[in-house]
Design a protein that fits this description.
Length: about 350
């Protein structure tokens, strides 16, 4: 039985992508361990068919956190029995690389995004140069890997001559019943980070007759709350914080429409394929989404979203009101979501994941 270890920097309970990946591999017969961080607010671990390990750090953010976490991760991996180690994104790539060299074991890179091209990194020259140096050193040394869409895979091929498989982050297909929705509330779920258009989304709510629930946490939370106060929207915009996946699915199912927005600043955003885009679809939820290439390609095929050409408050307001007031449009998009989820689901993506590991390691 091959022993696989996956390393992330976040709290394991909320990482739906890694829960899916690790569960699929564990069910297929691999011995799987997922390593993450423990914070002061971490809830007890939710049980899954794979092993889990949290590393406690004294520092919670910034350079000192990454330094401390990488050192703790290196020594944990060094003394843990491993056959294959997988780094999840750039922030765990170095300890996984060095451990794979010391132990002479294979290494895999799972790239959720173009890490260096995220707005919070790309707009800060020193931080960008630091992460870019790590990327240039490490990614070419990870010849085996996968990412979430074809444009990102092509970018890695062009930059570092690596051929990464595409495994999209799509939810497990579950039978659902669309409930009655007494309140037509809007939903943003996911990281509350820079580059997610909160600067224009929150003011847009002034002219939208509905509440907005924000389910998540991140580096823009303080600014987002200040924007709500600044625009007098405390009764309209509600911050729910990070939610466990099972609870979040219920909130999503009861929502009226979802929101997937990114600033065009930062190449990672422009060629992204966000988890929430599929999470809304699997709940039968029409959404307002940016008209960027990957989303447009899927929407052209399935017609599940209202796409906006820019993320101005005016455009967001118009699109949200269209979903709230145009029942004919809403019903069509909702029906298309139900149809699309039968084709776009984790049961199909899982086949690619298992083929990757069976091809390279069995």
């Amino acid at each position: 039985m091959k022993r696989l270890v996956f390393a992330v920097t976040n709290d394991l309970n909320y990482d739906q992508r890694m829960i899916r990946i690790c569960s699929s591999l564990a069910t297929a017969g691999y011995h799987v361990t997922l390593v993450g961080r423990k914070t002061g607010s971490s809830l007890p671990l939710v049980m899954h068919p794979f092993h889990q390990k949290r590393l406690h750090c004294f520092f919670s953010k910034g350079k000192l956190f990454y330094l401390e976490y990488n050192l703790r991760l290196f020594f944990f991996l060094l003394f843990y029995k491993i056959d294959i180690v997988c780094a999840i994104d750039l922030d765990t790539i170095l300890p996984c690389f060095f451990v794979s060299v010391v132990k002479r074991i294979p290494r895999v890179y799972d790239a959720h995004e173009l890490f260096c091209e995220m707005k919070e990194i790309a707009t800060r020259p020193f931080i960008y140069k630091s992460w870019k140096a790590i990327e240039r050193f490490a990614v070419p040394r990870y010849q085996l890997g996968y990412t979430v869409n074809q444009p990102i895979a092509e970018e890695f091929k062009q930059l570092y001559n690596v051929n990464y498989t595409v495994i999209r982050n799509i939810p497990l297909f579950r039978d659902i019943v669309i409930p009655q929705k007494p309140e037509r509330y809007l939903l943003y779920q996911g990281a509350v980070n820079e580059g997610r258009s909160f600067e224009t989304l929150i003011p847009a709510m002034r002219d939208v007759n509905a509440r907005l629930l924000i389910c998540g946490d991140g580096n823009f939370m303080k600014q987002a709350k200040e924007l709500v106060l600044q625009h007098g929207l405390s009764d309209k915009v509600v911050f729910k914080g990070a939610m466990l996946p099972a609870d979040l699915r219920q909130v999503t199912l009861l929502a009226w429409a979802g929101i997937t927005l990114f600033d065009a600043e930062g190449k990672s955003n422009f060629i992204s394929l966000a988890n929430r885009f599929f999470d809304y679809m699997h709940a039968g939820l029409p959404q307002v989404c940016v008209n960027y290439p990957v989303y447009r390609e899927i929407n052209n095929q399935y017609d599940i979203a209202v796409l906006v050409d820019d993320v101005s408050s005016k455009s967001i307001t118009a699109a949200l009101n269209e979903l709230l007031m145009n029942d004919e449009l809403y019903t069509r998009l909702q029906h298309n979501c139900i149809v699309a989820r039968k084709e776009l689901n984790w049961q199909e993506e899982e086949k690619r994941l298992l083929h990757f590991y069976q091809t390279h390691f069995d």
